Amino acid sequence: MRLGWWMILCLFFSLVESKLILPAHLAHMRKVEAGKLPANRLAKLQDRVDRGLQSFVSKVYQPLMEKALRNRYVTLSVFAGVMIITVSVLVSPLIRFVFFPKIPSDMIEVTLDMHAGVSIADRNAALIRIEQAAMRVDERYRQENEGENLVESIMLWSRGDDEGVIIAELSKAEKRSIEVDDVASLWRNETGSIVGLQKLDFSTERHAGGSKPVYFRLSSNDNRQLQQAAAELEAKLQSYDGVYDVENTTESAIDEVILDILPGAQALGLNLASLGNQVRQGFYGQEVQKIQRGREEVKVILRYPREDRDDLTDLDRVRIRTADGSEVPFYQVATITPGQGTSYIRRTNGKRALAVSANVDVKRIEPDAVIKDVRDNFLPDLYARYPDVTSGLDGASLEQKQTVEQLAVLGSMALLMIYALIAIPLRSYVQPVIIMAIIPFGLVGALVGHLLMGKSFSLMSTFGLIALAGVLVNDSLILVDFINKAKAAGKGLYEAAIFAGRERFRAIILTSLTTFLGLVPITMEKSLQAQAVSPMAISLGFGILFATAITLILTPTLYVVIAELGQGCRRLWYGEKVSKPLGE
User: Fold this and answer.
1) pTM for the whole structure
2) Exposure pattern of 62-89 as b/e (b: 16+ CB <10 Å)?
3) Sign of the CA dihedral with 313 first, then 314, 317, and 323 last
4) How confident is the model over 245-269, as pLDDT tens digits?
């Protein structure tokens, strides 16, 4: 969003400069007498470039456009074929489509989640094991690269009793010979398997969608079916080549104690909630006071002595206070039953819910391809085996769907506004269509650019196409406006189309080339900061380069064809007799 505002402001101030400041500069330029030879080397170079452009226009471009206009319907068929081939390439495996691009980083974040009930000592041992694996990877890298460091720093900390985080800062991408994803893969392999592990996630980038690119949510009222379905979906995702760090949010079962209140307890004014609160206060404690000690605040917790809360048999000696203030033994008002449960329960729309997500190596497979294959070929069989289970997209997958819907609405509104802005000054309903017909052909150059640069097509590429639409409209608008002026000056339609292309060739080519060359540094930059916007620069730069060449042929041809069809319709409708549109 911030980048878009920068572009809007730059275009606004360039408009002010061209209309208010540039004319003053031109007024003070020295006049050049006609027929006089240039006096300095720069002027001679300018003269040679000018004569070269004029020669190209008269010997190459003009004959090509005349041939295209004479065979105008063949020309349109060729362009239609190009568009069909482009769409085919877009949906083929040649182009990788990753809607939310991965934004690489010089940091690797490892998230460790042990099964509930695992001791803190085991959790800490797992963290140290992962840290030592990183040190071994760094040592091997230094030996293979003449002492160059791979890991600049590493830090780890715990979260709760069974979670931990390790962050490793790598050397800058420009200085190391290995990509961050390869470092994470080596680190993962060096770590090996860990006993009691529930989740181990090596994150090398920031996900623009907010979560892992493949994200499914399963819901059901039957917890057994839900867990079995989640396990099968997890196994299915693990079977794909290029899918890794598959995560299933199913909580492992932990031992728990189930309290059941006896019927006689209700007569004493007790219920299950009050009974549970008293047991919790006795074993886990109740905060009764806070004491200020220097700058720190100390909480005073009241509970049973340690020797009276170390075993389940201690529950039989617990005294339960009734509604009238008297106390009764625990075993007289409740029973205990050992069982298993989870530390927390997720619900979506009142149903139990689990999430199964995964990371994807976009060099080997696309996230959309995984999601489509799972939804089309796996989920129907899963529903048949577990009829109470339903699924839906969540996380980045749901964000992608919503973003596509918003882009479709906003894009349609933008096209309508462009149409209105063109139709009003031209006073025509048809000519804006001719001008905007060039917009889809920007996709041709964008796809070629992504293939040449080895980039995946992404959301940022789509933003580049949106910016490209406005630039291409300008070039096409110039041609149509000059054709209209030439016709108003008395030229025939064919002659006016040739004249407009010849006269505006230099302006269109120069504006397009300067835009492309201005974007080249971004497309070629290898730094991590540039990786986020390089797909947008590729779409805009290569799109305008290819679409400009198409504009110089397609727009005049389409103008002539529309005029010819319009005259034919008038002849059929009104019986008018008109001459041939091209003066042939």
Assistant:
1) 0.60
2) beebeebbeebeebbeebeeeeeebeeb
3) negative
4) 787 777 655 566 777 777 777 777 7
